[in-house]
Amino acid sequence: MPRAAAVDVLVFIGGRQYYSTKVFVGDVEECGLSELALEVLTEYSRNCASAAPNDDDSLLIHAHMQRISSIKCKGVETTEMFSFLGNSNATLGVLDSVNTPFLKNGLVFHLTSDKGIITPKAPKVNPFNMMMGNGEKSALKFLEPPPTKSDPRLDDQIKSELVSYFTEAMKIGYFNPDQKKSLEKIISQLVVVLCAVQKHWHKLMSREFPAIPSKFGDCELLEVVSNCSRTSTKSSSEDLPINIVNYHLTTLASVNWSAFFKSKRMKAPIALMKSQIAELSSVLMERKTYLIGKRSVFAPTRSISNSFKELPSFVKLDEDVDEFFVAVLPNTKKSQKKSQRTAKSIAVENAIDSLTGVLRHKCDYSPVFLTDEHMGITDDAFYREGGTVGLCPADRAHYRYAFKKQLRNGLKSMSINIFGRNTSGRDAPSCIVVWKVPLAIGDEHVGNVQNAIKNSRLLIPKRINTEAALRLNNILRGISSVPRGVRKAMTNYLFAGEMNIEGDFADSYCQFVEHVSAGLPVDESWILDGRKYNSRGGRGIGHTTFQPFWDECRRHDDALFASNVLSIPDLVRRATESLTLKANASVPPTEVPPVPPSLELVRLQFVANNHTVSSATKLTGGLGVVRKAQTRTLRKLHIDQHWVNAYNRYVYEWLIELRLLTPYVEFYGQDDKAKIPIGDSVPISTGVCPNTRTSIVAPDSEALNACDHDFHVGNLTLSVALRCNIPKEIGGSFFIGDSEDGFGKLYYTLRDSIFDPSKVFDHTSQLAAVLERDGLSPFVLVLQTDGGPDHSIKFLTTKLALLALFLKLDLDQLLVLRGAPNGSAFNKIERGMSVVNGVLGNVSTKRGEMPEWAETIAKSCNSMNAIREAHVKTAKERETAIAYMKETRLRYAVRYLQSYVNRLVRQMCSEIVLEGDRMEAIVKAASMVTEICNLVLPWLGAPADECIQMGDVSGVIQTEEGQAEARSVTISQSVQMNKRKEGLEKVAHDFKEAWTDSVQKPIDAINSRMSRIVVSGRAVDVVPRVGSSVFEDSLRSILRSIDPRYDEKFTTAQHFDKMPAIKKFYDKHVVGTPYSLSFVKCEDPSCKCKPMRSPMSVRALALQRQPAPKLDRTDQNRTGHYLKRSDALRLSDGNEAAACDLSDLPSKVAHQESTEAGKAKTARDAAVTKELVLRSWENRRVRGTVICFHCNKARCLYSVTVEAFLGASGELKRTMESIDYRYSCGDLIFPDGHPTSKIIGQRINLTCESPIEKSYYNVEGRTGFLTTPICIHCGEKGGSDFLFQQAELESMNKSGGQRCYPICKLCLNAGKKIETYPRKKTNNTQKRTEDRANIAAEASKRRKKK
After folding, report:
1. Among 441, 746, 889, 950, which lies 20 to 30 A Cα-Cα from 501?
2. How far apart are CA 1124 and CA 1107, in angstroms?
3. Can you tell me the mean pLDDT for 179-208?
4. Would strands 665-672 and 780-785 be described as parallel, antiparallel, or unpaired?
5. Do 175 and 130 meet the contact criterion of CB atoms below 8 Å apart?
6. What's the confidence (pLDDT) of residue 77?
7. pTM of the model
């Protein structure tokens, strides 16, 4: 809560006191000394001027600021605070200390003489500022005190004192009649409360009037009461009723200051007044706590068995423990009339209905232990009588009795059995267990009831301890009347074990709770002296034992630079395991390892986030770590978000209804987290810092040093899949669910973003693999995504991948949901993103080292595309080296063959020479060599004629026939070996493999951390990347089985017509909206979709397509809201056209924003084009485009010169890669104020429904950057048979003689307008030709109709 204060200030000019004032400060922890000085000099400038200047006239105030020569604390001569005037960290809360108590004593400002200061002229008075309190100080008016009476009543005296307090001490006044009326109402409310305080002064203060206890000394409103001379008569009641306390607490809470919301001058005084009202509320709250504790002592107890004895089926099972059994038939009584129902009866009926829903989803004879929650009794939501928050034990007993009384009447359309155990003493609480039984009882009923009673007896001890522990913890937290010293002493002793309310309980804690509840002696071994284990720095009683715990979690490896712990439980668990291993490894081994501390004990060792709050004194800082929470990022809501929320609500209700009937329905979510950067030679921060409350980081921000994202090129992609829990009611959890009934699960897959990017076929393959591995075979599947580049249902690739998934899983219905632009935060999968933040928070990553040649290549790359291009280049060099090595091996083979043949020739020649025919022998040998080469060398892979001449050129000689090359069979061995070595090195260079191996190291490290995440008692599943050869090929083969003409290159809308069989199948089975696709099987037995799998009992619901939301125009109280699902289904009446009725979709109704926000965006765009000299977003200033990941439309990037744009292109690439190219229409890549925003300009008055900017299209005179023709409405590309440009439109007689922008076939058939260039002269000849052709076509149509 902000700490407000009023600072007294004296201003001295030239050594003489000039004037004094009081400055109100709303929060001393935020206000600096310079801001206080600004307030003082602003008031001084008003006083010294003949007419009050505006608050914005900073010239005069700046001149006065230069005159400050000294700032001292009033009454303390040796302090000087002038040096802190320019220090933004020197807040008033920091500077206020024992040596400088200026918040109590005040400040003294010394100014030099005002010679040379020019007094400004009186400005014009702004009536609005005068009305709202921003004008002259003389405009502030105060309430007049009530007229003085000879014998005033108590309320008159308190009202007079309050008016004086508001006027003189608080300086709270009014500027307009509305504020005056509001102020009078506030004073009237305070008068009522203060009269009651004076009336019950002795009971509230434990003092005689007008003495005020020291603990309430800060409450100035009590002093207002004590100043009254008249007192009321003493209360006739023995005690102050709790309903009176609740009434006055509600009165104080309802004090409304909204009339002063825009009054800047009243902000600080009102904040101070709010703090005083809070002090008065604390006085009443202390009395209320005392009364609740007093009532709990006399809580009535009723025997459970007495509530059911009147039933004829009541059976007493055991006299010793008072166990009973009773069978209750269905309730057939009519409910009470509304006029006869009370708040208590309504609450009990709601609890009975809730219990009926719980039992309906349970199996027969499955026992349910009735807790306070089942009975509808909670501390914050059950029943607030007179504003009571929470229930005392007496009220709980009353409501339990009312619930039992209603329960014995039975449940609607359900027979139940009740087993109860009653304890008349206080050593253990009473309990009830119920289970449902079939309406038609069979022969096995008696045996099933006996088993249910046996299971109930086993269930009671565990659940009764859980309930007792919850109640004990609530009681201990609610005791506020214990004196501070006693409470502080009690906190020194802590329970030795873990108080895990939601999980299994340690036996010692159960015994501890039972003994404390029953008032029995507590075993001393169950509690610890916290002072021993929580001492600071080893001083005091005992010493800290947590140093070994922290030492174990500070280590990191060479790939992951982070703390080894994810949360406090993980810290204790890992440290305990490490200490146990050390104890076992010691010589001799330690029989008893160190006792692990409790979680609460560990929390006390943390460093405080805020050292100025009182709770910081409880933390020792012994561990040297701090827990921080990530602030919520800003969101930009799309105009369709409300429509999407309504449609998703329809789907959620449909899933709940279907899941209650069959388990073969699944709800999955998929998304990719933002890129995780990985460093090259230095660690790079993941950018998630600080993170969730479970994140443990060093208190100093410099503890984990890392470079920012500008110094890396590598990234990792984290794909997250969520098997959503489907609750039994719409208010349940769609995330993981609870530890008992929930079945949700998280799946994480980490991969390299460069060579393994995210694609839609990868996601569908991964989902199919997960379903197959978990053994799930649903016939209804709902998939929710964010509509990113790899999930956009507008892309043809996504449609084909989902169609293949629909057929592969043999689903009766596949429903795909997509979020609105910038609305992914509403998807269920986003909670899975936040869970992993605990792993990535305060983590720095670095890839492993690559070979030197690969590192040299990587250093020259500055983006992910550059890495891919480097791989392509090295791959080509590798192929060239492989070809060279093949040629070299062939050359060696030829030379060896020639050498071998020459030896044979020489041997043959020597034999022939002996016969005397030398020339004939040589000719015969040469022909033999040629014949051998022609036979052998082609088998080695080279033409024989070329290989015969192989050899290195050593020179050119002159012959009779001319010049000839002289070849040598052998060359220098050193040159030959160097070439061969270089070739072998290039053959071994696989840059992609080297990069993948280096990236695998941080992937394994992060996967190891993610595998330790536990959500709702279930560990997350780290799923390996599914290879394309497993599932992706099977998905594509399914598409080829429908249409053999399918090709992987078909990725855009123009290719749909090239696959007529697939297009026909798609149109037959799919119904879509901009935010959903519904794939449903048909009843044609010859169709490729196969027969339906859902049983006939649920088939109609399983195949039900949800209607598109329609505005509720029947109920005036729900203006702007959409129809409920039941009403929408009733109106649609099974009409499938209602599923794609977009008549109330906001983006279809109005493309452009007409709100103030739209006008502000237009003004901003006009200012930017003027500042950057873009000439109203001129065509010739377009230097590039960026694609929206939602609508796939190109949006222009503008710059004055090509050189400036190229200079900033590197920063543009890195920024786009860091956001995974997730640009959305209207987003700014570089926010206003960023240095690059002065070079590259963008328009923000764009939405996904806006057409393509007309400056995108090429015009005469544009050079350098030329764009590809696209449809002006949807941005699709294509050939002349799909995308109609000027020539095609003229041939179709649709140009009207105007120059037209391109339009695609789909948009033209949808009836969208053909846009024309402005200020272009009409071609009248072409217009007349088209008019004649259109008239002739119309006449031909009329003749055919006749």
Report:
1. 746
2. 11
3. 86
4. parallel
5. yes
6. 62
7. 0.52
My answer on whether omega of the bond before 210 falls inside 30° of 0, hence cis, is: yes
Residue type, 865: N
User: How many residues belong to the chain?
Assistant: 1346
Residue 124 has pLDDT above 50, yes or no: no
For residue 866, CA distances in Å to 714, 734, 855, 1213 come to 11, 42, 14, 10
Number of other residues whose CB lies within 10 A of the CB of residue 1095: 12
**What is the average per-residue pLDDT within 1246-1275?**
85
Taking the CB of residue 370, how many other CB atoms lie within 10 A of it? 23
Q: Residue 1212, Cα to own-chain centre: how many angstroms?
A: 26
> Phi and psi dihedrals of 232, rounded to 5?
-85, 165
Three-state DSSP class for residue 33: helix
- What is the rounded CA–CA span in Å between residue 396 and residue 332? 28
State residue 1065's pLDDT score.
92
CA atoms within 13 A on the CB side of 1140: 10
**Mean pLDDT across the stretch 1141-1169?**
76
Beta bridge partners of 16: 13
Query: Residue 1053 burial (CB < 10 Å; 0-12/13-18/19+)?
Result: buried
Quick one: pLDDT band at residue 463, thresholds 50, 70, 90?
confident
User: Distance (Å, rounded) from C-alpha 589 to C-alpha 581?
Assistant: 10
Count the alpha carbons within 13 Å of 1260 in the hemisphere toward its beta carbon.
0
Give the span between the Cα atoms of 397 and 372, in whole angstroms: 11
Q: How many Cα neighbours within 13 Å face the side chain of 675?
A: 25
Report helix, strand or coil for 907: helix
Q: Which residues contact 911 (CB under 8 A, 6 or more apart)?
A: none
| Predicted confidence band of residue 1108 (pLDDT cuts 50, 70, 90) | very high
Beta strands in 250-351 (DSSP E): 315-318, 323-328
Exposure string for 269-299, b = 16+ CB within 10 A, e = fewer: bbbbbbbbbebbbebbeebbbbbbbeebeee
What per-residue confidence (pLDDT) applies to 528?
A: 52
| C-alpha to C-alpha distance for 1037 and 1048, rounded to whole angstroms | 11
3-state helix, strand, coil in the chain (%, to 5): 45, 15, 40
Cβ atoms 439, 415 nearer than 8 A: yes
Give Dmax (Cα) for the chain.
Answer: 164
Strand boundaries in 390-496, DSSP class E: 415-421, 431-437, 493-495
Residue 1083's Cβ-count burial label (10 Å; 0-12, 13-18, 19+) is exposed
Q: Which residues contact residue 892 at a Cβ distance below 8 angstroms, ignoring those fewer than 6 apart?
A: none
Question: CA–CA separation, 130 vs 133, rounded Å?
Answer: 5
Q: What is the mean pLDDT of residues 724-748?
A: 86
Cα(933)–Cα(894) distance, integer angstroms: 8
Q: Are the CB atoms for 37 and 6 separated by under 8 Å?
A: no
The CA-based angle 78-82-83, given to 5 degrees, is 105
Range 748-761 burial, b when 16+ CB lie within 10 A, else e? bbbbbbbbebbbbb
Distance CA 1227, CA 821 (A): 11
The H-or-E segment that residue 1284 falls in is: strand 1283-1284
Whether a cis peptide bond, with omega within 30° of 0, leads into 521 is no
Rounded Cα gap, residues 674 and 361, in angstroms: 39
pLDDT digits (tens, 9 = 90+) for 903-915: 776 666 665 554 5
* 1232: number of Cβ within 10 Å: 13
Contact between residue 382 and residue 330 where contact means Cβ atoms under 8 Å apart: no
Q: Which residues contact 599 (CB under 8 A, 6 or more apart)?
A: 498, 568, 569, 572
CA dihedral sign, ordered 84, 90, 92, 96: negative
